[in-house]
Design brief:
Layout (H helix, E strand, L loop, with lengths): L1 H17 L6 E3 L2 E3 L4 H15 L18 H16 L15 H11 L4 E4 L2 E4 L9 H13 L5 E2 H9 L10 H12 L3 E5 L2 E2 L5 H9 L4 E5 L4 H15 L8 H14 L2 H5 L5 H12 L3 H12 L14 H35 L8 H11 L13 H8 L6 H13 L8 H30 L6 E10 L2 E10 L3 H15 L4 H18 L1
Antiparallel strand pairs: 1-2, 3-4, 5-8, 6-7, 6-8, 9-10
């Protein structure tokens, strides 16, 4: 039914246009008469020019439509890629003698309008020049629409605004115009995807934006009063810049890069100062960069939020910045501290001097425990531990990380509390076994190779102290030992295994005391 009505509507409109002389026409209350279709079209053009008096002149039918073809969409995507990567190159790096669809779109939208031009000796995407295909009026319209809002503007709302009079821009053009506008103004704009601030817009972000503008919103950074004062402190303390050569986005990007560069361990550990944890978590919980910088970070550091109507002492921003920088340093130091703590535990477990540097510790271990893995069967992980101690990583930090990764069952930069506990426990266990193996190996070296004698280390840990005894067994004694063992097994074979172990422990203790 709907299609039938639409068909009738199209037929009626076609009839009006084909035979205007058969109808009465009015515009703004004034009666008009048209003797031909051409006369009507000329008048309609004049009317539309008045209604859409700020519409840009776009000489490209491929993209200048509400429903672009698949070819146009593909060209649009390729053009955005070049805008991100080649904006500093004349003509975006297009080859002079080749004319792909994206090149014709570029020339119509950005080259002829002056959006992409050489300015101060550098090619870049900038605001268009006045009276140049009226693109500057669109730019001003976007500025005004965004500036008038007191919150982030959804791109669909912006697009709808630009499709209405006085602009009348086609849907196929809008995403490209916005990408250019954003790139030209990115130092003062915040872009959000699903309400989450995007400090670094990648090609993947823009590819989604081309298809789903409804997922994105844009907001202007406003700097006045108290915020401007704190903004200056942010720039000076974090970037060593002034408001003249730095922007709020510079701060946001620097902080975002810093937080994203922190190891996974630092992102999740609880082994930090309470305020430092609050500062770290503020980055993950805050969606608005304005709220992050002027509300959540000050509160995380124990200060009040910076608001427009709040009177703040001159020293307040300086005190806050000092506190923030201190917490950021703690976050940066968290992972090195974890490795240093592990190094100290390794040194202690091997009963070495605590003053040894990492390089000295590595050198000592590799000299004293080299080759011991050959004397241990891989049942309790000791062989793998010895091999990690001897690994040939290029630097001492990688060497230590390799050992920690083995014991914690995960790379230390990804540790959670359970990994750290596992590594610390295994470190003590394996170092004890290593020291015992080293002691046994030392005794074994003292034995005459021609004697066919084996050395064994017996160890008993009890409340009254530890018993460590190295015993030797030669080939002549082995038959007698085997006979004694058979007698013991025969007399104990019906006893509980726990009692057998207790009896063996008591026997070892008594023999040690008698000797």
């Amino acid at each position: 039914y709907l299609s039938h009505v639409q068909q009738q509507e199209e037929q009626l409109l076609s009839h009006f246009l084909e035979h205007p002389e058969l109808n009465d026409w009015f515009h703004l209350g004034e009666s008009l008469s048209f003797k031909s279709r051409r006369q009507l079209q000329q008048y309609l053009s004049v009317v539309l020019e008045g209604v859409y008096d700020q519409a840009p002149l776009i000489k490209n039918e491929l993209i200048n439509r509400d429903k672009p073809s698949s070819q146009a969409n593909s060209a649009r995507k390729k053009l955005v890629t070049l805008m991100l990567s080649h904006a500093h190159i004349e003509n975006l790096g297009f080859e002079q003698n080749k004319f792909p669809p994206e090149k014709s779109i570029y020339r119509a939208l950005f080259k002829e309008t002056g959006v992409h031009r050489k300015q101060n000796g550098v090619w870049s995407i900038v605001a268009p020049k006045a009276n140049n295909y009226q693109m500057h009026k669109v730019w001003q319209g976007i500025d005004k629409f965004i500036d008038e809002q007191d919150k982030a503007v959804n791109l669909n709302a912006l697009y709808q605004h630009l499709q209405q009079p006085p602009y009348g821009i086609k849907a196929g053009v809008l995403p490209l115009l916005f990408v250019a506008y954003y790139l030209a103004n990115q130092r003062r704009l915040a872009l959000y995807e699903n309400g989450v601030f995007c400090p670094q817009m990648s090609l993947e972000h823009f590819e989604i934006l081309l298809k789903r503008p409804d997922l994105f919103s844009v907001e202007v950074f406003a700097m006045e009063g108290v915020k401007a004062n704190l903004f200056s402190h942010y720039l000076k303390k974090l970037l060593d810049k002034t408001p003249e050569d730095g922007s709020l986005l510079d701060i946001i990007k620097a902080l975002a890069r810093f937080i994203h560069s922190l190891p996974d361990y630092t992102q999740h550990t609880k082994n930090l100062d309470k305020q430092t944890l609050t500062v770290r978590d503020a980055f993950a919980k805050t969606q608005s960069p304005i709220q992050l910088l002027f509300e959540h970070l000050p509160k995380a550091c124990g200060f009040s939020a910076f608001t427009e109507d709040e009177l703040v002492a001159e020293k307040y921003p300086e005190e806050f910045m000092n506190a923030l920088v201190s917490h950021l340093k703690q976050l940066k130091q968290a992972y090195p501290d974890l490795l240093m703590n592990f190094q100290q535990q390794l040194t202690h477990a091997l009963k070495l001097e605590p003053t040894l540097s990492r390089a000295e510790l590595r050198q000592y271990i590799q000299q004293h425990y080299q080759g011991l893995d050959k004397y241990n069967h891989e049942r309790d992980g000791l062989q793998a531990f010895i091999k990690r101690l001897q690994n040939n990583k290029t630097n001492d930090e990688a060497w230590l990380e390799s050992i920690a990764a083995l014991l914690g069952k995960a790379p230390p930069n990804k540790w959670r509390a359970e990994h750290q506990a596992q590594a610390e426990y295994q470190l003590v266990q394996q170092c004890e076994r290593l020291l015992e193996l080293a002691k046994l190996h030392t005794h074994q070296l003292k034995i005459d190779p021609q004697s066919a004698c084996d050395a064994m280390l017996l160890r008993l840990v009890g409340a009254e102290g530890d018993i460590n005894q190295v015993v030797y067994v030669d080939n002549d004694s082995k038959p007698k030992v085997d006979s004694m063992l058979l007698d013991l097994k025969s007399s104990w074979k019906h006893q509980d295994r726990r009692l057998q172990l207790v009896a063996l422990a008591r026997m070892l203790k008594d023999l040690q005391e008698e000797s």
